[in-house]
Amino acid sequence: MMNATRTWVKALPFSGRVGLSLVLLWLFLAVFGPLLAPYDPGAFVAHDVFAGFTAAHPLGSDYLGRDVLSRLLSGARYSVGLALAAALVASTTGTALALITAVSPRWVDEGISRFVDTLISIPSKILSLVLVAVVGSSLPLLLLVASITYFPGAFRIARSLAVNLAQMDYVQVARCRGEGAVYIALREILPNMIHPMLADFGLRFVFIVLLLSGLSFLGLGVQPPDADLGSLVRENISGLGEAAPAILVPAIAIATLTVGVNLLIDSLPGRGRRMAGKE
Amino acid sequence: MAGPATRGLLATALPLIVKRIASGLLTLLLVSLVVFFIAQLLPGDMAQELLGQAATADAVAALREKFGLDQPAPERYVRWLLGMLTGDPGYSMVANMPVADVIAARLPNSLLLAALAALVSVPVALTIGILSAMHRDTRLDRGLNVATLSMVALPEFLVATLAVLIFSVQLRWLPSIALVPADASPWLILRALAMPVLSLAVIVIAQMARMTRAAIIQQLNQAYVEMALLKGIKPARVVLTHVLPNAIGPIVNAMVLSLSYLLGGAVIVETIFNYPGLASLMVNAVTSRDMPLLQACAMIFCTAYLLLALIADTAAILANPRLRNR
Fold first, then answer.
1. Partner residue facing B164 (CB), from A133, A233, A240
2. Residue ranges of the domains in chain A?
3. Is A255 close to B285, i.e. CB distance below 8 A?
4. Could you tell me if the ipTM is greater than 0.95?
5. Per-residue pLDDT reduced to its tens digit, B221-234
6. What burial class does residue A110 get, using C-beta atoms within 10 Å of its C-beta: 0-12 exposed, 13-18 middle, 19+ buried?
């Protein structure tokens, strides 16, 4: 197991290894970040607002004199955790619907596909803005909004995989054996589409991190006193004129997370470059 | 080009294009249903929201009747849809004026921004795409791949804040707020728009360059390219005179599709620069829960998106001989 992992990492190109390190770093920070924070993220600890890099405050202080590093470490949990959960819901929903269409009568497939095609024809930011206006932006509802916005893409990819797999000989054999639809979907089709769907899960995660931090940046995402990385950029926007680290650091932090995942996915073996993208 | 060949092309492609337009219109109709349905989920309604909690039941009922909110949902949907089609998408509660007037003031600004961003990104993306396709799997291609791949994943507000920091705070070349007075000279307008355009272009260029590269590489894998190379024609010449004319359909397709990233990017970029466009208007409509305005904005963005997809597919139909002869 250890050896297999080592060979796998060694096979990655340099950019892939950079991506992997960034992903592992952020996962670690999302879990243990708050424990590492030097200060309480809500406490006013600095003498100065929008201070630069100092020994006491390695990443400066924010617009209220709070420690940027501590706030970043607690914000990472929201950005990574919420996006992971939403990506999981989106990918699972998309895959489940795709499996249903693969083993159901034609009209079910046409109905679901038409509905998803409609959702996918609404630009993701626009759809999420309309949804947020209606349901609001508590944490569970943000998770729901992000999942609704990005499950159609997962469904499309999963469906094209599942429809092809459903034509394979071994699936026909299983059908002739008299296996039920549930068995065929879960035992014959699903295991063979899990790898591309994992890569797609990574892309969903990137889209959702960008979507949620964008919403938070607009003041429509995570609401105070909770703050994800996008909220940190928003609340410090007045420091832009003095080039305060408080605004740049969280924005760059998001970029290292999303770029890291993108680089890792792009370098996975057997994966075409064309698939990596924003939508 | 004129003559029987052109007529033949039109005769075979036209039914396909008409079919594509019809399916686009159907999708737009379904999208309008979704947008209308989501707005119906809002607890309470416009009348309640407008009058506040303290309003008497009679006052709410009267206002409901005035806006036609007392009618069943299907009826309201049909009336809303007909209103959209005839240029009267309702009344904005927050702006206290017809939605059409609010939008008319903002739409030209957004179109100008999008047009300039497209104008900047197309040549740059085309160059990057061609370069990396020509030097496929060399160090240059890999470098450009990592660069565009990273740019695709950047949050829009990072690009915009970096632009402000560099050009407005450090170099003091450009204003950081894109407020354009009505009587400004073209030069002033361009200066004010430079940073929003730049930020939008960065977002679009990466995606466009990647899709262009893919479109050209698909052509490079064709047999006629190998033939030309075997005949001893220089690779650069093969790309410029043989591949590009054949790849023009897929390239136009890729470019138009990536322009749809302007729609999402505009939401952040217009807000950060305080630009009076349609996207920042939509964000305001979300904040104030101005549903008629929000629905109208959403439908304009969806229409723009479907229109881009339609143009992209039409380019693909016109350029693909196999589709043409079907």
1. A240
2. 25-278
3. no
4. no
5. 888 888 888 998 88
6. exposed
